[in-house]
Write a structure and sequence with these properties.
Elements (H helix, E strand, L loop, with lengths): L2 H21 L6 H20 L28 H4 L5 H11 L9 H14 L15 E8 L5 E9 L23 H11 L14 E8 L5 H13 L3 E7 L2 H4 L17
Parallel strand pairs: 3-4
Antiparallel strand pairs: 1-2, 1-3
Helix pairs in contact: 1-2, 6-7
Length: 264
């Protein structure tokens, strides 16, 4: 393994350790502080950078006239590309720091609608789900300059459902993550938004969106949640999510029947 691969592997093990300790109520002290210092703290400014067109202009090589000199297909950031997730503990910390976390009254509805979709699709309640099997739930509305409103009402979004947007790009970590459901949920709202010459939503348009993920968002989806602001500068985004271990409890099949005494 190269040094970069060793570093990425160490981060994966650290994420697993943090989640296990937190699940058992033992996360505190040295490991938590070390993870925060070595993993979370370097990542946060890289995520915050993606919320602003000005700060992330290097991604597109924008000239002084605002013209994009390149059309990248993904975010190129060595810090983000070395880890697939912050884990559910520090993903929530990051969303809170970025003013995107939301645990409002719509959370139970999002859980219900998403789990219904997973049941309809006969999603396997595996220990580690495939991204193509996951679903995100979204609600959103737009208010145009004329005062007209457009809404996305309680929609479950799956893998690869929406049209790409240049301002919301995936991060490549181990594999292509462009079709993940959380990113698709945000792109669905943008499909119905009036787009300006710079390929972003017109500045006079205002809006708000909620996204629920049935699994902890990966680093690419977390990055997309940051980029939503640069695609739609006049909108707010509220995010919440479940741990997969909670979601799969509700989509698993019936328990196996106990054998009869005669069969034993």
């Amino acid at each position: 393994m190269t040094d970069v691969e060793k570093q990425a592997d160490a981060i994966v093990h650290a994420v697993v350790a943090v989640e296990l300790l937190h699940w058992h109520g033992k996360l505190a002290g040295t490991l938590e502080n070390a993870f925060r210092k070595c993993v979370y703290v370097p990542v946060l400014p890289r995520l915050r950078r993606l919320t602003s067109r000005e700060e992330s202009s290097d991604d597109f090589k924008i000239d002084k006239n605002g013209r994009k000199l390149s059309r990248p297909s993904r975010v190129h950031d060595a810090t983000l590309e070395r880890q697939f997730t912050l884990g559910y503990v520090f993903t929530e910390v990051a969303l809170r720091a970025l003013n995107r976390i939301d645990k409002a009254s719509w959370f139970p509805l999002a859980q219900l609608k998403s789990r219904q979709e997973l049941l309809l699709a006969d999603t396997e309640a595996a220990d580690d789900p495939a991204a193509k099997d996951l679903v995100a739930f979204s609600q959103g509305h737009l208010t145009l300059g004329s005062g007209q409103e457009r809404t996305v009402n309680s929609r479950a979004v799956g893998h690869g459902d929406a049209t790409p947007c240049i301002w919301i790009l995936p991060v490549f970590v181990d594999h292509d993550r462009s079709s993940h459901a959380e990113r698709q949920a945000m792109l669905v709202l943008l499909e119905d938004a009036p787009i300006g010459q710079d390929e972003g939503v017109l500045p006079e348009v205002k809006g708000r969106m909620r996204v629920y993920a049935s699994h902890t968002p990966c680093i690419s989806c977390l990055s997309s949640m940051c980029q939503f602001t640069r695609a739609f500068e006049g909108a707010e985004l509220a995010v919440t999510f479940d741990q997969w271990k909670e979601t799969r409890r509700w989509i698993g099949g019936p328990p196996e029947e106990l054998p009869d005494e005669e069969d034993e």
